[in-house]
Amino acid sequence: MLICAALGVTAAGLWLLPGEAERAGLFLPENAEYVLMGKQIYRGSCASCHGVNLEGQVPDWQTPGADGKLPAPPHDETGHTWHHADRVLFDITKLGVAKAANLKNYESGMPAYEGVLSDDEIVAVLSYIKSSWPEEIRNRHDELNKQFQERD
């Protein structure tokens, strides 16, 4: 019970950071501290697959490799990351694709970062990624987050 309460407080804190009440979603791409922390964590934990410049593993990231798994997609504006709401991206990062999407027998090269990165570190990495997108893409992503929140 105490763990659930602590998780609720942490989640509420992520949604209601000072000065962020109007913001849709979890990510903080305007917060320089989060973006810098996220960039450092990304370079150490994500860049080996997703590319130092968010370019993805291979140019044809939508075609499965010889192992049957999709290569790591780009996280820049050419990929599909911004097509997913913050909560979905957070869950994929924390839990892994199969668990986040409730896909049985789905194999992915994307590891789950639960127990490796804290929730704040995951938000920081995803904030860094979002901070790299052009303003038009960020605005579209914000609208997607608003729609996602309205459904909940």
Tell me about this structure.
By secondary structure, the protein is an all-alpha fold. The chain has one domain (23-151): Cytochrome Bc1 Complex, Chain D, domain 2 (Orthogonal Bundle), CATH 1.10.760.10. Helix content is 50%, strand content 0%. Helix 2 packs across helix 6 and helix 4 packs across helix 6. The chain is globular and about 40 Å long.
Q: Which descriptors apply to this entry?
A:
0% strand; 7 helices; mainly alpha; disordered N terminus; globular; Cytochrome Bc1 Complex, Chain D, domain 2; 152 residues
CATH class: Mainly Alpha
CATH superfamily: Cytochrome c-like domain
At CATH's second level, what is the architecture? Orthogonal Bundle
Report the structural category: mainly alpha
Which outline best applies? globular
Strand content: under 5%
Alpha carbon gyration radius? 15 Å
Q: How many strand elements? A: 0
Mean pLDDT: 85
Q: Ends: how far apart?
A: 23 Å
What is the oligomer described by this structure? Answer: single chain
Poorly predicted runs of 5 or more residues: 1-22
CATH fold-level topology? Cytochrome Bc1 Complex, Chain D, domain 2
Sheet with the most strands, sense and barrel status: none
Number of domains: 1
Produce the secondary structure layout.
Blueprint: H1 2-15, H2 32-45, H3 47-50, H4 86-95, H5 97-100, H6 119-131, H7 135-151
Helix pairs in contact: 2-6, 4-6
